[in-house]
């Protein structure tokens, strides 16, 4: 998280750097108009308006939002999908307003640094100077009698406070951009359509894979199971059959049936809800995931899961499923799972990290989970806290949707 704060500060300073050319242009045109006569002033107004139009056109260009999304991902640590339709005007305006917000926050940060850094430096250096007065400007009233010795001990303390406040303002600016990025740079309606179409193609590929698995592995497992069952009956009918043979055949039969059941569950996940053999799973079935997990799951559920619309409940189940899969695959020990239904659906998962598998946590599974949540208007925060992996997903609930 410390690295994100540093890169967020870099993003804020980039916004301040982008502001400088605009300040320079305004100053140049202002000074030129102040010194020009009436005819030249009118020409300067025309040039200024043309410059503003060109600048506006550049900021509204389609690639701008794509660059902003890439920068927000890299520097702010924000999860944002690719821009599906950068040429749409809704996408262009989102890029424009994000640019304006960066300029505004950059201006505020530059102002804070220009004031805070010199003031803090002067206050901290005061005890080493042969002075008894603090001067903040050329006016006669901008003087504070600080005295000397212990009577001026408050001056360096004030310098430390000014420095801390300045740093906190810069960090707060980065945090503000981090929170604002999903709302301003998040997917437009056109982007959501592109993401939905991409998701449909993925589901179609998954359905094809499910059919292939059923035709190949499913039939092979069925054949093994039938042969093990028949061999077991032959062994039981014979006299003096080796008990170890009976035990081995029973184990093969039991393992085969379990493998078939697990295969059916995997195929149900791969298939879309209407193509599966069973009804789609919802939040009401999360307890089954906790019970079947290979690790010990401490499951806690709050709120009425039946009140959650079916579409959100189905997606929430898949999110819990993927989170538990990652937790048991890449973690070690017990897993804490909490599902809360209040204003929306909140999912909390944490478990101890397995050092050998920790780098794989941010893979395709987590990326797919974030895309699911983002399409539902929510957000996912996942990361390492000490020696544990924490995942939080929050999904808003609209009771009117099916």
Could you name the key traits of this structure?
5-stranded mixed beta sheet; alpha+beta; phosphoprotein; elongated; Heat Shock Protein 90; Sig_transdc_His_kin_sub3_dim/P
Question: What would you say this structure looks like, in words?
Answer:
Residues 273-277 have low confidence and may be disordered. Helix 1 (2-35) runs antiparallel to helix 2 (38-59). This protein has helices at residues 2-35, 38-59, 62-76, 89-125, 154-185, 189-237, 243-270, 286-292, 310-330, 364-375, and strands at residues 133-135, 143-145, 297-302, 331-341, 344-353, 379-385, 388-396. The protein has a 5-stranded mixed β-sheet with strand order 3-4-5-7-6. Strands 1-2 form a two-stranded antiparallel sheet. Strand 1 (133-135) and strand 2 form a beta hairpin. It folds into 3 domains: 1-185, no CATH class; 190-273; 283-396, 2-Layer Sandwich (Heat Shock Protein 90), CATH 3.30.565. The chain has 402 residues and is an alpha+beta fold. Its EC number is 2.7.13.3. It catalyses: ATP + protein L-histidine = ADP + protein N-phospho-L-histidine. Residues 207-273 form the Signal transduction histidine kinase subgroup 3 dimerisation and phosphoacceptor domain. Keywords: ATP-binding, Kinase, Membrane, Nucleotide-binding, Phosphoprotein, Transferase, Transmembrane, Transmembrane helix, Two-component regulatory system. The chain crosses the membrane at residues 12-30, 42-64, 96-126, 153-177.
